[in-house]
């Protein structure tokens, strides 16, 4: 299965403009259809749901890259970024796979990286049906990006963020991605 973009077939899934504001959490929430999934256009690798209440499921991949972008940032403010995930009971390949998150403001911005150790440290618990959890969790600390007050509104101020494991080359499966979120701190 391929996703069409500009008439060209792709094996990657390109996000629809699909984010919603959660007033209680003071966050913008990106359901799976609002995120980009490398290899997400091919159902052998990912199952991307049409319903917002259903998570995207990683069937198998050696290259994990789930990204999104948020264009409502303001100079001088700090934003917290996270993902809500869980694992299927048969998830494999995650024990030694270093999972990272990254973010940057604008295409030319400096990329900030954070290792998400809670995924590796809690894989058995996460596979045990505890339900979805937010990452990074309290053991990882928050993942926040400060937008310089010197950034002009007419500059490229889109916040680009992602979840990655692209270094080991090992096959992974069983990750469930429910949402990503960006909230003003």
TrEMBL record:
Protein name per the record: Uncharacterized protein
Superkingdom in the source lineage: Eukaryota
InterPro entries in the record: PP2-like
Source organism per UniProt: Capsella rubella
Cited Pfam families: PP2
